[in-house]
Design brief:
The complex is a heterodimer.
Chain A: H1 6-11, E1 19-27, E2 30-34, E3 39-43, E4 53-56, H2 58-101, H3 103-113, E5 120-121, E6 127-128, H4 140-159, H5 163-174, H6 179-203, H7 209-232, H8 235-255, H9 269-273, E7 277-282, E8 287-292, H10 296-313, H11 318-328, H12 333-357, H13 363-383, H14 389-411
Antiparallel strand pairs in A: 1-2, 1-4, 2-3, 5-6, 7-8
Chain B: E1 2-5, H1 15-44, H2 64-71, H3 86-114, H4 118-136
Helix pairs in contact in B: 1-3, 3-4
The chains are: A alpha+beta, B mainly alpha.
């Protein structure tokens, strides 16, 4: 398993080719290339050799596999074991201590565990129990959050999903933070990720403002409405809806199959009016590809929904932007991936402001998460060369299903 | 989908995109640098915090509304009056990052108008207004 770069392609002679194929599908930010012998993940926003076709020598393939198989299996299994251990045992265990440090829980614990003579009088003269000190040092949480986000960053890149879509359900389900803070941080994660990748995508000419701007406007408006509604409903309803939405996202991940160059015969009137078309340089072939879009009204309606969900749950929207742009609008895959990044940028930015204004921002949650996930993503990009995306994708799906189940259980009040 | 061989300067290579990319890159780097510096100040305790760092776990289990009630933080742009405190200093970088799109779109408008692309310029203005509305704190609902 290896990732080809353009340099590698140029070194492989045509007579020495073991595998050759084309881009087949894209999940969020990753382009997959597949044939019957191997599967390669070629493109993430931070690692962008935009090659449409690939070639790889049998010698290279065998050497790469031999060298990396044992190490990578061990490494991945360790990471995933740690992640599962942390999420299922460590976080809920520590959570008990954190709950005790909240004022309400603290006084409840105090009432049970401390003798009445320790009661003190407050300013109104009423007797209250002093809150006991938390047994968990405060710094454990940012460090644990950083580690989990670092692992999520790796898994997100390897699995080809956005960080926000993993962060919100997992951290929201297994950490003691209120969903308001988790969702705000989720949006800031999506925003930071998009900020990191967008400049390069613009320079490559892959992001098309004619497609991006109308849809991002629609998605931003609905993201604000989603964020406002998300702040107005109770945490239980948020958890319950999040569980259902995550299952829906898993279904999208399993069922959608994208095409590199969708056929667009007749652009609709809105597409013509907005001149939603363009061209980009296909670097692998040196050809310029002209494209046009259709079904803009339907896409716009779908972006209302995507923005709303993204804003309400702080998920970002990479999981849905690409399928809609590619499969509904008929935008070429690479343009869809790049344009999705811009839409994510604006819609996350708009929704994040709603959360910030409502006081849902705690720097001690947001900053370790952002740095953890960004560093993890960088490591993930390097690990792409040595991992089989299909397997990681399965793990991502399992993680999402588990997080969704946890969210549903919390929503129903079965396992808080 | 048409695919054609070309030797000419490709159409995608526009100064508009290059300018937008540069602005986006510079703004996001600045924002991340501010975030990193302010967070370092916060965790090292170089400047006093509004809420002591060790007390934060007492608040993060609360809803945002409860958090504001308990801490006396009024939300919206009230953080600007507390910006001398280390914890609220972190808001500078985060809010800057959340405003980057707006700043870059502002830069884009004159370029679009110069190219006589009125529809896209209009959408760009609308996008700025939407983010401004969200940032202003005018739009509120619920707790």
């Amino acid at each position: 398993m290896t990732t080809l770069t353009r340099a590698t392609v140029s070194r492989v002679g045509r007579g020495n080719v073991a595998s050759r194929g084309n881009v087949t599908h894209v999940v969020a930010s990753a382009v997959y290339l597949i044939d019957n012998k191997t599967q390669l993940k070629l493109w993430t926003p931070t690692d962008l050799p935009l090659t449409r076709s690939f070639e790889i020598s049998s010698k290279q393939l065998a050497a790469s596999r031999r060298k990396n198989r044992i190490i990578m299996h061990f490494f991945l299994k360790t990471i995933l074991s740690l992640a599962f251990f942390g999420l299922f045992f460590l976080a809920p265990g520590l959570r008990i201590h954190a709950d005790e440090s909240s004022p309400e829980a603290a006084s409840a614990v105090a009432t049970k565990s401390q003798p009445p003579e320790l009661a003190v009088q407050d300013s109104s003269g009423a007797f209250i129990m002093p809150a006991p000190k938390s047994r968990t040092p405060w710094w454990i949480w940012p460090i644990l959050l950083f580690i989990v986000c670092f692992l999520l960053g790796i898994v997100a890149v390897l699995g080809g999903v956005g960080g926000g879509v993993l962060f919100v359900p997992i951290v929201g389900s297994f950490f003691p933070f209120h969903m308001d803070f988790v969702r705000a941080t989720g949006l800031l994660l999506a925003l930071s990720g998009a900020l990191a990748s967008s400049p390069m995508l613009f320079r490559k000419g892959m992001t098309n403002l004619r497609v991006a701007m109308p849809f991002s406007l629609v998605a931003s408006c609905s993201a604000i409405v989603g964020a406002m509604l998300g702040m107005a409903i109770s945490e239980k309803v948020v958890q319950l809806s999040l569980g259902i939405i995550i299952l829906f996202i898993v279904a999208i991940m399993l069922l959608t199959r994208k095409t590199e160059y969708p056929r667009v015969e007749n652009p609709d009137r809105l597409s013509n009016l907005l001149r939603i078309n363009g061209s980009y340089l296909e670097e692998s072939t040196g050809h310029e590809v002209d494209w046009k879009a259709h079904r803009s009204v339907l896409s716009g309606i779908l972006f209302v929904f995507i923005g709303f969900i993204g804003g309400m749950f702080g998920l970002g929207a990479g999981w849905a932007n690409v399928p809609v742009l590619n499969m509904v609008s008929g935008v070429p895959l690479k343009v869809a991936v790049a344009t999705s990044s811009y839409i994510l940028l604006t819609s996350s930015s708009a929704a994040a402001w709603v959360y910030i204004n409502k006081g849902a921002l705690i720097a001690m949650i947001a900053i370790p998460s952002i740095t953890g996930i960004m560093l993890g993503a960088k490591i993930g990009v390097k690990m792409l060369k040595r991992t089989r995306p299909e397997n990681v994708r399965k793990i991502v799906i399992v993680l999402l299903v588990v997080a969704s189940a946890r969210a549903l259980l919390k929503g129903f009040g079965i396992w808080n | 989908m048409e695919e054609k061989q070309t030797d000419a300067v490709p159409k995608y290579s526009t100064p508009r995109r290059e300018t937008y990319a540069s602005w986006l890159e510079n703004c996001s780097r600045t924002g991340l640098a501010i975030v990193a510096i302010s967070f370092a100040i916060y965790v090292t305790g170089s400047i006093e915090s509004h809420l002591p760092v060790k007390d934060i776990p007492s608040y993060w289990g609360m809803s945002a509304a409860e958090y504001m009630q308990e801490t006396g933080y009024r939300g919206g742009w009230a953080w600007t009056s507390l910006v001398h405190k280390a914890d609220y200093m972190n808001f500078i970088g985060i809010c800057f990052l959340a405003s980057v799109t707006m700043v870059c779109n502002l830069r884009l408008i004159p370029m679009l108008l110069k190219e006589n692309d009125k529809i896209l310029a209009g959408i760009c203005v609308a996008q700025i207004i939407v983010i401004l509305l969200a940032a202003s704190g005018i739009l509120t609902v619920g707790h």
